[in-house]
Specification:
Layout: H1 9-18, E1 26-30, E2 43-44, E3 54-55, E4 59-62, E5 73-79, E6 93-96, E7 108-111, E8 115-118, E9 121-124, E10 134-135, E11 146-148, H2 156-164, E12 169-173, E13 177-183, E14 187-188, E15 199-200, H3 202-213, E16 217-224, H4 228-241, E17 244-248, H5 258-266, E18 268-272, E19 276-277, E20 283-287, E21 290-295, H6 299-317, E22 328-331, E23 343-353, E24 356-361, H7 371-375, E25 378-382, E26 393-398, H8 399-402
Parallel strand pairs: 5-6, 13-16, 13-17, 14-15, 17-21, 19-23
Antiparallel strand pairs: 1-12, 2-11, 3-10, 4-6, 4-7, 5-9, 8-9, 18-20, 20-21, 22-26, 23-24, 23-25, 25-26
Helix pairs in contact: 1-6, 3-6, 4-5
Keywords: Magnesium, Metal-binding, Molybdenum, Molybdenum cofactor biosynthesis, Transferase
Pfam families: MoCF_biosynth, MoeA_C, MoeA_N
Family: Belongs to the MoeA family.
Length: 404
């Protein structure tokens, strides 16, 4: 097959993202339940964070000019975090702690480890400069500025930031509703005995796990029989319930590959056959107004196609921003024998060799060997029409980055 018959990966991703329709439905959830959700509106800062100058350390508040003579300073007060602000008497120090509000008149905090206590006073060991160990009001966030923008995926640090500006309830986009349809008369649910020619339906569980990681809600999960009319009816029913339909199998060129045929006959097929290995027979189209992402049937091809092509589309549908990762450039601990017209995604992981960090490839890269993906921690990219020699830099994407 000529390379002109295949869609390059970047072109395919651009095609998918351009056709994504971001979710507009929103809901309010408690901050404690907001992890991995996507903000549905901008959040601005209602008041300075921190609200007042405070101490970054346990120690003593002083006026730096009072230390010029090197004489001991008496301690005139004590304040802890959350207590009323004190006023520093000239020529004295105030004992304070991390988070304590800086007393009026003080312009520096001396870390307690740099102080010698003598009776009711202290002697400072070392130089003191104005502003040292003071966290200024508004240092983190200033009133009126943007704290977090709509489209931000909420991680633990975003939860903390929202909490720091007093947000108890968060406006987030509704979860993307996804229908998962696996194809093949040979598929059997785990737990059931296998008959002649049958295999267990592993793709269903791979997809359920991937969609859970992606923050989606699965509203339909069924196996499709290898029959044209049954496939059509199930796709139409799924289109009425879901924001997105994901299928595995049924999009190649065989007589029993009905998903692609139904898209062509009853919907729209706008993308098919990619310059990707694994993942060439991936398809994209619509049934009615509902997008259909048709993944290949081989287990590893399902995983790779979802991560590389499916995740950018899902992120765009979720209204997310700033989610494109660049991978890492790491020397290859493997080589390839001949170039391919397709971009190869090699199941791989980091390892330490004689020359340091390298990327090691699983020895069997067949798209049916799912155990290779369990061994691996990510994907190494072999570009089109390229061979890799030992030590050559390769782009490596961890699974965590691909699913971020």
């Amino acid at each position: 097959m000529a390379s002109s018959d295949l869609t390059p990966v970047e072109e395919a991703i651009d095609h998918l993202v351009a056709r994504a329709r971001p979710i507009t439905r929103s809901q309010t959830v408690a901050l404690t339940n907001s992890l991995d959700r996507v903000l549905a509106r901008d959040y601005t800062v209602p008041a300075d964070v921190p609200p007042a100058d405070n101490s970054a350390v346990d120690g003593y508040a002083v006026r730096a000019g009072d230390l010029a003579g090197g004489e001991p300073l008496p301690v005139s007060g004590r304040t802890a975090a959350g207590e009323e602000r004190l006023t520093l008497k000239p020529g004295t120090a105030v004992r304070l702690f991390t988070g304590s509000e800086i007393p009026s008149g003080a312009d520096a905090v001396i870390m307690q480890e740099r102080v010698s206590v003598c009776g009711d006073g202290i002697t400072v060991n070392g130089p003191v400069s104005e502003g040292q160990n003071i966290r200024r009001r508004g240092q983190d966030l200033a009133q009126g500025e943007l704290a977090l923008a709509a489209g931000t995926r909420i991680r633990p640090q975003e939860m903390g930031l929202l909490g720091s500006i007093g947000t108890a309830d968060v406006a987030v986009y509704a979860k993307l509703k996804v229908a998962v349809l696996t194809t093949g008369d040979e598929l059997v649910d785990p737990g059931q005995p296998l008959g002649p020619g049958q295999i267990y339906n592993s793709n269903r569980y791979t997809l359920l796990g991937l969609l859970a990681k992606a923050g989606c809600e699965v509203v339909l999960c069924e196996a499709l029989k290898d029959a044209r009319e049954a496939t059509r009816k199930t796709l139409e029913r799924a289109a009425a319930e879901a924001d997105l339909i994901i299928t595995s199998g049924g999009v190649s060129v065989g007589e029993e590959d009905h998903v692609r045929a139904v898209l062509e006959e009853s919907g729209n097929l706008s993308l098919w056959r990619l310059a990707s290995k694994p993942g060439k027979p991936m398809a994209f189209g619509t049934i009615g107004d509902t997008p259909v992402l048709g993944l290949p049937g081989n287990p590893v091809a399902v995983l790779v196609s979802f991560m590389v092509m499916g995740m950018p589309f899902i992120r765009a549908c979720q209204g997310r921003t700033g989610v494109t990762g660049g991978g890492e450039q790491i020397p290859a601990g493997f080589s390839t024998e001949k170039p391919s017209i397709r971009r190869q995604y090699v199941r791989a992981r980091k390892s330490i060799g004689d020359d340091g960090l390298m990327i090691t490839a699983y020895p069997n890269q067949s798209s049916g060997v799912l155990s290779s993906a369990c061994w691996a921690d990510g994907l190494a990219v072999v570009p089109e029409n390229t061979t890799i020699n030992l030590g050559d830099p390769v782009t490596y994407y961890s699974f965590a980055e691909l699913l971020e």
